[in-house]
Amino acid sequence: PGQHRITYRYTNADGCTAQQARLATVQPPINLRVPESLILLKGDSLVIPAQVAVPLLSVSWSPAGTLNDPTRLQPKAGPTESETYDVRVRTALGCEAVARTRINVYTRLFM
Description:
Blueprint: E1 2-11, E2 17-26, E3 37-41, E4 46-47, E5 58-62, E6 76-77, E7 83-90, E8 96-106
């Protein structure tokens, strides 16, 4: 990760040489992490504890219907039945990562 100087050199058939240098920015890995599955009691809600290692430009969760804000990295979810969610994140440099989590919804047991 970081900035790296790259130099290009070209020599044509007549022996003329041209050179150009540029800086290339390499971003550290996004390291998007979400739990494989979570447990929720019907009628409750929870925050999906997603984590990343770099700043993000955008976040998109799907399906969005039971989330308080599908553009937040850690939205609050309140599904009434078990649901699988996919998250896609993007950095300012255009790097993307995707992950999936499942919220298993259980009915409260009263005795």
